[in-house]
Every structure is written in structure tokens, then in C-alpha cells.
Write a structure and sequence with these properties.
The protein is α/β, with parallel strands linked by helices and 295 residues long. 20% of the residues lie in helices and 32% in strands. It is built from four helices and 17 strands. Strands 1-3-4-5-2 form a five-stranded mixed β-sheet, with no helix packed on it. A five-stranded mixed β-sheet has the order 10-9-15-17-16, covered by helices on one side. The chain has a four-stranded parallel β-sheet with strand order 12-11-13-14, covered by helices on one side. Strand 3 and strand 4 form a beta hairpin. The longest helix is centred in the first third of the chain and has 21 residues. The radius of gyration is 27 Å and the shape is elongated. The model has no long low-confidence stretch (mean pLDDT 91).
Length: 295
């Protein structure tokens, strides 16, 4: 796949146009040139020589001829790399289905116009070029805080330059609820007892504590004689939250916050249980850059 990191590296011209001295000259940042023709756009990769803002074109290579390019008509946010890759894949699939029936040469490149009227392109797009991050969280309460924050941040295009997308793995704690089940916090609204608000009769049998190491320590401090079955729900150790791909998850221990970790062979990052949007966004960026280093 060829997809320039910045559209400032893409120049534009019309076929036949030259500088006044008849020597083709280009802006010093230009790595690619889109040449508008009657048939469409030719795409060139270019080299230049000299110094200054305007330099002499030294060499050029045709990357895609006009017959290989497709112009996407709708104006998009061209800083959203994931959106453009996904759109390019769908556009080429549709276009090449038509071309196949007409025995025409397949298209390889989609040219996009941004909301700000700048141009960019994606050649030979592939969904495998997008890193997938698994958002691991629990319910109730609903919506799950981390997953909901990530959705809102993603909608705001906070991660547009990172070339990532998200899936979710949500563990439902309601499967354990009951009169003899103990949960850490009453905010969940589950049916059971809560360490933060209820009195637990430690002389009774059959209790079940659904929580993590911190929950166990609180229970043992409050009720040293309490006998209970322990259901491990720490996202870092629970079977219900075991990651299958790179991930982000929450933990109540502040010392784990911001750490890159390995769980089940997958690289992920931990955020604190009650962290806000800014810290979540920073953590996802840190994880995405870590994944890019390992590619």
C-alpha cells in the first residue's frame, strides 16, 4: 500500500503546464505529483535537486496512470487514515467488479478530496494495514465507561492519524448476581451485596465474591472470618477478559496505569478504573505507537 503520511507531500498540476523557463520545477516538499488530464489523474513519484522552496524536478516515476485511478466524489476528512483505507477498499471492490464485466484494466488507486479541498490518494489499499485494538471492559453499569469513552473519542477523530480501529470484549457480571453474591461497588446496580454499602453476615455460608485482589483485601479487612468462593474479575487475570489482539483495559491499581503489558501473548495498555478521556486518548496513542514500532 502507498498512502502518504501527510498530504502536504502531494503536489498538483495539469498536463502540459511548465514553469516560465520551460524547466519543470516543483515545491520542495513534493514527493508525489497528481497530474490532471482529460482522462483523469496520473500519479507520479518524483525526485528533485537543488535548494530553496522551488526546486528542479530530477526524475519521476509513474505510480498509477489515469486508467488505474478512481476519483472518490464525496469530500472526506482526509486526516482520518482508517476511514480512507476502508473507503478505498470498498471503492475499488465496486469499481473493479464493473471493470471485470467490461474486460477493462483494474483500478489500483483512489484519489480523495478533503473537506479543505486538498488531495491525497491510497494505492493498493488493504485492511490488514489497519491495527485493531480490543477494548476490554465490563457491564453493568451500562454503557461500560472505557468502551463508551473510546467510541466518543474515535468519533471525534482523535486517532485519525494512527491508522487504528476498535473492537470490544465486554464481560457481563450479571451472570453471577444473586442474594449470596458480593460485589465491590453498589454503582453496578446488580442484585447482591456490596462491600461499600452493605453489612455482610460472616457467620453465613455460601458467599461468593466477584472482584479482584483489592476486593479480597477489603473483604478480609472488614470480615476476617468470612468464608467465600472467589470469582477472579481483574481484567489482567480473568478468563472472561483474556485479550485475543492488542488491547486496552482498566485496572483499579494506579501503579498499573499507563503501563504497556503482555497478556495472553498480546500487547496492551492499562488505564486506571476511573480515568477520563484525555488520559485514555494518551494511552491509546502510546499503545498505537508501540505497535507500529513492532511491525
Amino acid at each position: 500500500m502507498i498512502f502518504p503520511k501527510e498530504y502536504k507531500t502531494i503536489g498538483w498540476t495539469e498536463k502540459g503546464k511548465t514553469s516560465p523557463d520551460e524547466q519543470k520545477r516543483i515545491y520542495f516538499l513534493s514527493e508525489y505529483i497528481l497530474e490532471k488530464t482529460a482522462e483523469g489523474y496520473n500519479l507520479y513519484k518524483t525526485k528533485h535537486e537543488g535548494t530553496g522552496l522551488i526546486r528542479k524536478a530530477k526524475d519521476s516515476e509513474l505510480v498509477a496512470g489515469a486508467e488505474e485511478t478512481v476519483i472518490f466524489k464525496e469530500h472526506l476528512n482526509i486526516k482520518n487514515r482508517t476511514l480512507l483505507i476502508q473507503t478505498a477498499v470498498k471503492t475499488l471492490e465496486s469499481e473493479n467488479e464493473k471493470r471485470k464485466k467490461a474486460s477493462q484494466k483494474p483500478a489500483t488507486t483512489v484519489i480523495f478530496t478533503g473537506i479543505d479541498r486538498h488531495l491525497t490518494f491510497v494505492k493498493d489499499p488493504g485492511l490488514s494495514e489497519i491495527s485493531e485494538i480490543e477494548v476490554i471492559d465490563i457491564i453493568p453499569p451500562e454503557p461500560p465507561w472505557l468502551a463508551d469513552c473510546v467510541k466518543r473519542l474515535d468519533t471525534a477523530n482523535i486517532f485519525g492519524d494512527l491508522q487504528i480501529r476498535f473492537t470490544e470484549k465486554i464481560a457481563d457480571l450479571s451472570v453471577y448476581q444473586g442474594d449470596k453474591t458480593i460485589y465491590p461497588c453498589r454503582s453496578s446496580g446488580l442484585k447482591g451485596k456490596f462491600l461499600d454499602s452493605d453489612r455482610i453476615d460472616e457467620n453465613k455460608d455460601g458467599w461468593r465474591l466477584v472482584g479482584c485482589d483489592t476486593s479480597k483485601k477489603i473483604a478480609e479487612a472488614l470480615y476476617p472470618g468470612l468464608k467465600y468462593e472467589f470469582i477472579e474479575m481483574c481484567p489482567m487475570r480473568s478468563e472472561l477478559t483474556k485479550p485475543e489482539k492488542p488491547f486496552i483495559m482498566r485496572c483499579c491499581k494506579s501503579e498499573n496505569s499507563g503501563n504497556i503489558v503482555k497478556i495472553n501473548g498480546q500487547t496492551g495498555i492499562i488505564v486506571h478504573w476511573g480515568t477520563g478521556e484525555w488520559q485514555i486518548a494518551e494511552s491509546i496513542r502510546k499503545l498505537a505507537l508501540e505497535l507500529q514500532k513492532n511491525e
